[in-house]
Amino acid sequence: MVFKKLILLCLLGFGSAHCGSKASADPGMNIDGSSKEAVYVAKLDWQTQLKSETSLTAKLSFTGTDGSAAQTVENIVFTPWMPTMGHGTSTVNQKISLVPGTTNSYLVEGIYFIMGGDWEIRLTATVNGRKDSASLPVYLP
Fold first, then answer.
1. pLDDT tens for residues 10-31?
2. What are the chain's domains?
3. What is the pTM of this model?
4. Least C-beta-crowded within 10 Å: which of 8, 45, 48, 141?
């Protein structure tokens, strides 16, 4: 019965987030967003195909809101969070390392989403001496 209702909603154009209208992200797809207090803009560039239940990698870059490269970035906390379920996922195997030759780009390895659906990356960092947070939306089919 639930399946029939979902099909009907898809045919009528409702509930499109669950009807396959959002394509999975390919490597090179990026997501960006400003921090809450406009201290920085964070850009997430996926290095691996977005899939649940697998270890993923992304490049995370920080700029000022004027587009200039951040001079210092410290205390990065990168948390995958599923708002509809009210929980995140493990960050135990996550590794964040500076991309050589940069001051503002990091490779985030071991990103793990436990299931498909709407997620967000809850990000906190101290950029150019100011701590702020951002939320970047992610969808996994």
1. 333 333 333 333 434 566 678 9
2. 24-140 (2.60.40.1930)
3. 0.79
4. 8
